[in-house]
Amino acid sequence: MNLMLAAQALKGSTALHLTKVPVPEPGPRDVLVKVAAAGLAPGMMKLLELGAFKHLPTTLGHEAAGTVAAVGAGVTGFAEGDRVRLHPNLTCRNCVPCRTDREMMCAQQAMVGHASFGDAPTPLYDAYHDGGLAEYVRVPHWLLDPLPDRVGFDVGAKVHDLANAVRALKCADLPLGATLVVTAATGTMGTAAVKLAPFFGVARLVLVGRSAERLAAVRRLAGGLPTETVALGELPDGWAAAQGLTRRLREIAPEGVHAVLDFVPDGPVMAQAAAAMATGGTLVHMGGNPGPLPIPARIWMSRCWRFVGTRACTRTDAQEVLDLLGRGVLDADELITHRFPLAQAERAVAAMRDRSEPIWMAVVNP
């Protein structure tokens, strides 16, 4: 039996474990991919702690790119050696959301190497829950996208996060010449959104984060767009109780901002950034904040604001990213700030969760 190294979640543990497991055997409709790069997302450990993984043990990692190692007997369109990236969304492919570019709303939605999000039966997740933080991953052939020659495997593995940013920007429904606030701007989703903002009619960016130094480094990702930063650590003491972030954003944009992309997982930033929106503004939330939104519905009504939540991208979003990368109009290489060998996956996850050093995107190279 051929064995491979894999980073797994085990029953009864909230830690990541490096184990030797059998190399998967592809079924008739499967493709076996030799993983060259796998993305890291610290949120998977939080989901593990919350019990969102229905099958344990399971190999983690919903982002992966590599080369085709073997194809099932019923697979056409892929051959050994092809360069590919994995689209991790497991859905029924037949419901109304799946047929209208809203696959993240499918009742069966789950993610390879990640979690299941609803209470409906998830037959595909049952079969394909093992992910890409391993030397090989087995996936259904329809979840693979060819990787353009000019796109490296590391960026290929992070197409999913770039596509999440595309989805957030689409949800914002920005007018041409928009002023856009991006919160948690120094993290994975924040940096992806900054990099993609010029493709969505944004004329001015306001980046919110904890550290002025880290925000300064992100400014150069904006492609020359006028960009201002708000460091939470430099706001007056007591800003959280005194609406200090709203006041600062209103100083920057007295007429209000057109939209807020909020990637902060908790705390008052979401509400205070939303309160700085112009009439007709949109708050797009992707941070998973468990707290209430303390702005009365009456205010949302009178100012014609919109709140849009979205938890993932769609295949269309990912293919749009691949098109931008393939044509060379988007260069995302600089977003990959950290690379780790698979044997150091535990250290990599700890670094992502600790954030004591600035990490934009991180990948594991088996």
UniProtKB/TrEMBL annotation:
<dbReference type="InterPro" id="IPR002328">
    <property type="entry name" value="ADH_Zn_CS"/>
</dbReference>
<dbReference type="Pfam" id="PF00107">
    <property type="entry name" value="ADH_zinc_N"/>
</dbReference>
<keyword id="KW-0560">Oxidoreductase</keyword>
<dbReference type="InterPro" id="IPR036291">
    <property type="entry name" value="NAD(P)-bd_dom_sf"/>
</dbReference>
<dbReference type="InterPro" id="IPR020843">
    <property type="entry name" value="ER"/>
</dbReference>
<dbReference type="GO" id="GO:0008270">
    <property type="term" value="F:zinc ion binding"/>
</dbReference>
<dbReference type="InterPro" id="IPR013154">
    <property type="entry name" value="ADH-like_N"/>
</dbReference>
<dbReference type="Pfam" id="PF08240">
    <property type="entry name" value="ADH_N"/>
</dbReference>
<dbReference type="InterPro" id="IPR013149">
    <property type="entry name" value="ADH-like_C"/>
</dbReference>
<keyword id="KW-0862">Zinc</keyword>
<keyword id="KW-0479">Metal-binding</keyword>
<dbReference type="GO" id="GO:0008743">
    <property type="term" value="F:L-threonine 3-dehydrogenase activity"/>
</dbReference>
<comment type="similarity">
    <text>Belongs to the zinc-containing alcohol dehydrogenase family.</text>
</comment>
<dbReference type="InterPro" id="IPR011032">
    <property type="entry name" value="GroES-like_sf"/>
</dbReference>
<dbReference type="InterPro" id="IPR050129">
    <property type="entry name" value="Zn_alcohol_dh"/>
</dbReference>
<protein>
    <submittedName>
        <fullName>L-threonine 3-dehydrogenase</fullName>
        <ecNumber>1.1.1.103</ecNumber>
    </submittedName>
</protein>
<feature type="domain" description="Enoyl reductase (ER)">
    <location>
        <begin position="12"/>
        <end position="359"/>
    </location>
</feature>
